[in-house]
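ok so I'm stuck.
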Amino acid sequence: MPTDIYIALARDMFVATLKLGGPVLGVALVIGVVVSILQAVTQIQEMTLTFVPKVVAIGLTVLVCGAWMLRSLVSFTEELLRRIPEFVR
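replied:
not stuck anymore, here's the structure
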């Protein structure tokens, strides 16, 4: 069995994972840094102050990017199902 097919499949899966998770993780990272700087400047150490803005920002990101993420995941799945005969040779 040619291993290059499986390596290409694994690469495509990692790229799809990064494309789908990147926006959400990026927003969570930016909000986390901003809130941490705000906490350091004001010396407010409230745990909900870090949690609530991240949840709201991630929810808005999924709301804004959700359709694109779903289309991307569906096209990846269709491509994967189309290529099944290559994998079973």
